Amino acid sequence: MDKNNYPISLAESESDPRFTAGLIFEVIDVLERHGYPSPVGADYAEVHCGLFRLLYRSAG
Q: What residues form DSSP beta bridges with 10?
């Protein structure tokens, strides 16, 4: 049986140089091109947090 690749293990003291503001804006752009509404205000933080939760889990 295949193991899942996500979420990636990431210790709290680590950072991933791939997780940038540019990544967040590219994800938002893809969502908009698929007909989802443009984020406003705190929506940007929600996209950031949601993507982070999808990609990473705490080490342990």
A: 58
